[in-house]
Amino acid sequence: MPIDKTDTQAQRMPAGKPESKGLANSPQDTATGTVRPQDGPMERAGTEAEAAARGETGPSDGAKPE
């Protein structure tokens, strides 16, 4: 069979996936195959134990008045 000269994205992409550099799900640049930089760590939600330690007693604590 003759070699197909069709240019496909799969042929242009580097082989394999780049290292994630410690990130769980890194955004990847589809044009270059490199991992895009991200902002700092995400804020995590507090736990009920942490809220109790701050003296909050219910869901209305810390909420804006209506």
Would you give an account of this structure?
This protein has about 70 residues and is mainly α. The protein is built from two helices and no strands. The protein has helices spanning about 10, 50-55. The chain is rod-shaped, with a radius of gyration of 24 Å. The mean pLDDT is about 70.
- Compressed to H and E, one letter per element, the order equals HH
Described by strand count, sense and barrel closure, the largest sheet is: none
- How many helices? The count is 2
Shape: rod-shaped
Poorly predicted ranges? none
Can you give the helix content as a percent range?
Answer: 10-25%
Counted beta strands: 0
Mean pLDDT: 69
CA-based gyration radius: 24 Å
Tell me the β content.
under 5%
Layout of secondary structure:
Elements: H1 9-12, H2 48-53
Quick recap:
With 66 residues, the chain is mostly helical. The protein has helices at 9-12, 48-53. It starts with 8 loop residues before the first helix and ends in a 13-residue tail after the last helix.
